[in-house]
Amino acid sequence: MGPPSGKTIIPLFMYSIATTAIVYQNYIFVAFLFKRYRAYEWLCKGGSDKMGGDFFVCKEQENCIQFLLVSGLIIQFISGSIGSILINVFSKKKYVSRVAFAFLFAGWTLLSVALSYSKHYMEGYSKVGTSGASPDSLGTHHDVFQTISLLFTLAFACFGIGSDNSYLPIIYYVNENYPVEQGEGTRKSGDPAKDSSDPANESQHAESANHPGESKLGALKKMLKNKNYILISTMSSLAVLSLFVGNVLLALLNAFKGENNITVVVSMYILVCIVPAFFIANLLDEGRGKTTDDNVAISQQITPNTKSTQLWGQIDLDALKNQVKSPFYQFIVVEFFTITFSICYFMFSLFDIYEHSVFGDTLNVYSLVLPSSFIITLTFGIIADIISIYNFISFNLILGISVFSLTWVYYKTASVFVGYLSLIIYFFHQSFFANHMYMYMSTVFREHNFAVLIGIINAFASVAFFLSFKSFEYIKYYGGPVHSQVLIQIVILSYVLLFLFHIFNIKRKAASGQFMTTKSSASEVTQNNI
């Protein structure tokens, strides 16, 4: 029995991403889970600031959960960068992916064990504390709690290592096997092969002007043929949908009552989702013959007087240097860094803003609605080929400016309406978090050095996550409202500067095709992929 066909492979990848990708990033799900099993509640002593909300018992507990999540995210981006390089070195995506799923298996196992022991020993600790037990027995509990804390740390480290490295190889598979078509969206980006001075092209423009309805229909047909955008957008949206798995797990925990229900539910999840995804990863290197032939054809296009340095398998060092120097790449690195910082900061601010009684059960409802943002991710990703990826990025930057402008107004006025409006726009903005970057990279840089370039972007994003968390932590516990407003203003200014640079530099160069030429003697491989 041979391997599945291409039509079967893609749905299997969809199942893998939709059930495993970024489940642990559902911040509200994690907060619910940790409070339910009394994780880190032993830190909430008599002098602690009791919070009394639906998510945290005290600030110490909140700090630990935030630290775990941010640590996992930072490890996720760093390990994703390393995994991207390893994929190029060994030219085998399935090995990286299978190791990643092994880490996800370990992470969920450690988490279930830690949560089970956390609740068990915390209940015993509460009884011991109220009965006036000896210091030795209390010390024994403290040793156990340190072990449980270590298990939590290891679990989220495993999630971090496994998340991107199980998800990104599928994106790389799509980009290699379904490259961006030289269609309408590409010509908008400045494809010199379809220069407007071409008489044949001029006649096509004239015909399109005389038949606008047919032109739109033709654009729609080209969009539907561009499998790269559709599939990358689909995979990115399904990664968002995986947040829904957290809600399903909570529902199952409510359905299955018992002391060890967390172990039973997580075991079911591993058996139904993680294990099949591990074997699905074997299909990542199917269809590589086409990609290999393409790489050979591209290498034959290099001019004889230009040397191309191959570093560690598929990595072309000369091309990589030229790509990294490109303003198009430098822009997306800074843009993704800024969006990562801002989205992470707003995510942590959710509890400070929407836990107030005036917002009622807003966060509970938001946790249920959040996974549905995959519909928005999918829809806008598909139409990006018609509106062009550059207009799509402009729109996303405008959303970012709107979110934080409204957040700044909220801090000034405490208006409930403004608070709701900023959350709604944030819902859209975070929906485009990753897929806009993947589509931009697949459009501008094609498949050449794609994984390495994504890895570099992720490395900078990990720094953004760390800075965002430390900024939030400092402002919350050592700063004040003024510091928060200043940071929001800095974020807004950063978005505005990125938007202006994108409009007046990146889009103009893309429209004129200036990025097709380089000042240095770069290889034609690079010029064909920038």
UniProtKB/TrEMBL annotation:
Q: Where is the composition biased (Basic and acidic residues)?
A: 184-197
User: Region labeled Disordered — which residues?
Assistant: 183-214
Keywords for the protein's UniProt record, in alphabetical order: Amino-acid transport, Membrane, Transmembrane, Transmembrane helix, Transport
GO biological process per UniProt: amino acid transport
Where found?
A: Membrane
**Polar residues: bias regions:** 198-207
UniProt xrefs under InterPro entries: MFS_trans_sf, SLC43A_AATransporter
The transmembrane segments are 12-34, 65-87, 99-117, 144-162, 229-256, 262-284, 328-351, 363-383, 390-411, 417-438, 450-467, 487-506
Predominant location: membrane
Give the record's GO CC terms.
Answer: membrane
In what way does this protein cross or attach to the membrane?
Multi-pass membrane protein
Q: Which family does it belong to?
A: Belongs to the SLC43A transporter (TC 2.A.1.44) family.
Looking up PANTHER family in the UniProt record yields: PROTEIN FMP42
Q: What is this protein called?
A: Major facilitator superfamily associated domain-containing protein
Question: What is the source species?
Answer: Plasmodium fragile
